[in-house]
Amino acid sequence: MFPHHREREQPIFSARAHVFQIDPATKRNWIPASKHAVTVSFFYDANRNVYRIISVGGTKAIINCSITPSMTFTKTSQKFGQWADSRANTVYGLGFATEQQLHQFSDKFKEVKDAARLAREKSQDKELANTALNIAAPQSPPVMCVNGPEDKLFRSQSADITLSSEKERIKKMLSEGSICEMNLEAELFTLQDSNTKLVAALHEANANVEQWKKQLAAYQEETDRLREQVSQVAELEAHGGQGPSDLLKDELTQSLEELEALLKAKDEEIHILQNKKVEYHEMEHDRDEAIHRLRETEMRNAEMERRIQNTEQTLSNSLEDRDRMDSEIQRAIEILDIKIFDLNDLRQSLVKLIDK
C-alpha cells in the first residue's frame, strides 16, 4: 500500500520562499514560520482529485493546505504574496527572492485553483471516501522508499571522489604547462637578445672590415710608392750619382717601417674579425637548434592544452551528471518528507479511531 500511496500524489511545481503566518492575536503582524527559505510545493492527488500546497521544515509541516476554488493569492508587494486558509484559520505569506518567482507562483496558484474548481464540480463526495481508505492503510516502514535515494547518494559520493581526482590531475597538468611555458618564454627571450647582439656585432664587424680594407689598400699603395723611392735612391747611390741626403733616406726608411708595422697590425685585426665571423656562424647554428627545440616544445604544449580541454569537458559533463543526480535526490527527499508527514497523520488518525 505504501508504494501505491507514494505514486498517488506527485509534486507539480516547487519554489523557494520565506514562509510567514498571520499573528492570530492581532491578525495584522506576520510571524516567521521558517528561519530561512524553504521549498514550497504544489502536489496533486490523482485518486482524490485534490491539490495541496505543502512545505516541510525539518520534520515539521509548515504549510499543509488543500486548495479550494474560493482561495485567492494576492500579491501585496513586488516579492510578497499571501492567501487565506479558512480550514486552518490562518493566513499564509510567502516572501520570494525575485519578482519573477512571485509571478510564477501566482500563475501556478491560479491554474491549480481553476483545476480544483473543475474537479469539485465533477465530484464533491470522493474526498471523504478516499480519506477513509487512506486511514485504513497499514503503517509500512518507509525503508523501501529510502533505498533509492541512498543508492543515489552513494553514487553521488563516488562521483565526488572521481571529480576531486580529476580536479587534482587538471591542476597538476596546468601547473606543469605553466612552468614549461615560462621556461620557453625565458629561453626565447634569451635567444632573441643574443641574436640581436650578434647581428649588431656582425654589422659593425662588416663595416670595420670594409673600412680597414680600404685603409689597407691605401697603406699598400703608400708602401709600394715608398719602396719604389727607396729603390730609386739605392740605384742612384750605386751609380754614384747625386742622391738625396742621408736625412731624407732615414725619413723614408722610418716611414716605410711604420707603414709595414701598421700593415701587419691591420692584417692581425682582419684575422681576428674572420675568426669572430666563424664564431658567429656557430652561434647561428646553435640558435637554429634552439628554435627547433622551442617549436617542438610548443607542439607538446599544444597537445597538453588539447588534453586539458578534453579533461575539462569530461569534468563539465561529470558535474552536470552530478547536478542532475543531486536534483533527483532532492526531489526524492522532498517526496519522502511529505510521505513521512502523511504517515504521521495516518498514525495519529488511527490512534484517535482506536481511542474512540
Automatic annotation (TrEMBL):
GO terms for molecular function: G protein-coupled glutamate receptor binding. CDD domains: EVH1_Homer_Vesl. Its main location: cytoplasm. InterPro entries: Homer, Homer_EVH1, PH-like_dom_sf, WH1/EVH1_dom. Signal peptide: none annotated. The keyword Mitochondrion does not apply. Residues 4-116 form the WH1 domain. Pfam families: WH1 (PF00568). Keywords: Coiled coil, Cytoplasm, Synapse. It is found in: Cytoplasm; Postsynaptic density. Residues 195-328 form a coiled coil. One of its GO terms (cellular component) is cytoplasm. GO terms for biological process: G protein-coupled glutamate receptor signaling pathway. SUPFAM superfamilies: PH domain-like. Belongs to the Homer family. This is Homer protein homolog 3-like isoform X5. The gene is LOC115022755.
